[in-house]
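Why should sequence recovery work at all? Because a backbone constrains its sequence more than one might expect. Tight turns favour small or flexible residues, buried strands favour hydrophobic ones, and helices have their own preferences. The token representation captures these environments compactly. In the example below, the structure is given first.
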């Protein structure tokens, strides 16, 4: 079976004030060509289809166009799950009807763990799509009070799957999660607080391939078949070294897989340029990719007037400038941090320490987690 695995499209993303829909449309045209060229038997999209719960109209139109061409023109089945950025209810709309046209959408979590079953020349393959898991929702749906973390939620669900699955079939799991050992980047929204969001890769034993979404760098975690496809574009300057791709899997009759990263070429790359302003301006004449999205790390020790205006004359998509000499360390950092990635727990822990002069106890942390989950549940109901 030939499988194309992709994830984290984040349609409707805004990058430093620039709407990326045209860039996403450009790279998704490449994606469609890859699906055709590989003669894929199925396309798997592992969550974060949209960048936010209420996506803009142009993002919805783009998804409609791409999915329609996959299912109708290329005639390939598509299996798509929600991620933590998606609205499960909105994504789930029409899913029962679409399934009759080989478009399988799994937005809301359901305790029905039936697979999507496809067939190749070697027999049947069961694909188990697990939409993004919020522990509080899983706890309520399964009536299991002990489910407080993502790992406990996954274990309960996977135990149910293993108890009921056909042992003579190859199996694929589709999920959206933070797997312990994976490499993160600044553009990923934390799934939970503290360490409650991480899951150990060992819980995925028993599947022939695990198609993951959430982390934006294409990578395998611990085992080759436990894999993140990564995002289709660079969504942060911390991702400048990433090689964006889709994952091609060819599964044999025993469930072993040949796995290949097929690169994607963006309309505009995301780069960091470092140096003195005069040298950067002079060197731009030899730069063939001046339309890229650029962050400049200026090394000038003296004040520079109108730096952004001067840079945008040669690099029109200069989005941000860092003045290295004015940073606390008096030197440029090697990895750019787009924003302060503090979890709710870290913020509250710092506040608690400042007010009381001591760190939170395990019992206090547990109480905080429970209150936060209740607030999140209320917010979901309100939205």
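From this structural description, the recovered sequence reads:
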């Amino acid at each position: 079976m030939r499988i194309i695995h992709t994830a984290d499209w984040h349609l409707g993303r805004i990058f430093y004030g620039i709407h990326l829909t045209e860039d996403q449309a450009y790279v998704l045209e490449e994606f469609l060509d890859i699906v055709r060229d590989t003669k894929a038997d199925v396309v798997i999209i592992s969550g974060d289809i949209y960048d936010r719960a209420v996506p803009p109209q142009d993002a919805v139109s783009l998804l409609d166009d791409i999915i329609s061409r996959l299912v109708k023109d290329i005639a390939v089945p598509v299996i798509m799950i929600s991620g933590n950025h998606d609205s499960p209810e909105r994504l789930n709309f029409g899913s029962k009807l679409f399934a009759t046209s080989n478009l399988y959408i799994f937005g809301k979590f359901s305790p029905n763990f039936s697979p999507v079953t496809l067939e190749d020349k070697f027999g049947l393959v069961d694909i188990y799509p697990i939409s993004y898991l919020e522990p509080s929702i899983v706890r309520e749906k399964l009536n299991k009070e002990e489910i407080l973390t993502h790992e406990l939620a996954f274990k309960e669900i996977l135990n149910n799957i293993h108890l009921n699955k056909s042992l003579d079939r190859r199996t694929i799991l589709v999920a959206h999660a933070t797997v312990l050992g994976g490499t993160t980047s600044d553009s990923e929204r934390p799934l939970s607080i503290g360490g409650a969001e991480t899951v150990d890769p060992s819980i995925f034993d028993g599947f022939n391939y695990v198609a993951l979404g959430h982390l934006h760098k294409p990578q395998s975690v611990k085992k080759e078949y436990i894999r993140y496809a990564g995002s289709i574009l660079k969504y942060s300057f911390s991702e400048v070294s990433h090689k964006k791709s889709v994952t091609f899997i060819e599964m044999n009759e025993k469930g072993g897989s040949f796995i290949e990263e097929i690169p994607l070429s963006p309309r505009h790359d995301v780069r960091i340029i470092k140096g003195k302003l005069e040298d950067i301006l002079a060197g731009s004449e030899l730069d063939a990719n001046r339309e890229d999205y650029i962050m400049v790390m200026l090394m000038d020790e003296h004040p520079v007037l109108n730096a952004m205006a001067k840079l945008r004359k040669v690099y029109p998509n200069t989005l941000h400038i860092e003045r290295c000499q004015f940073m606390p360390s008096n030197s440029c950092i090697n990895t750019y941090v787009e924003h302060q990635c503090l979890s709710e727990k870290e913020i509250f822990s710092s506040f608690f320490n400042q007010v009381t002069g001591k760190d939170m106890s395990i019992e206090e942390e547990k109480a905080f987690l429970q209150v936060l989950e209740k607030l999140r549940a209320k917010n979901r109901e309100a939205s």
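A few observations help interpret the result. Residues 362-382 form the longest helix (21 residues).
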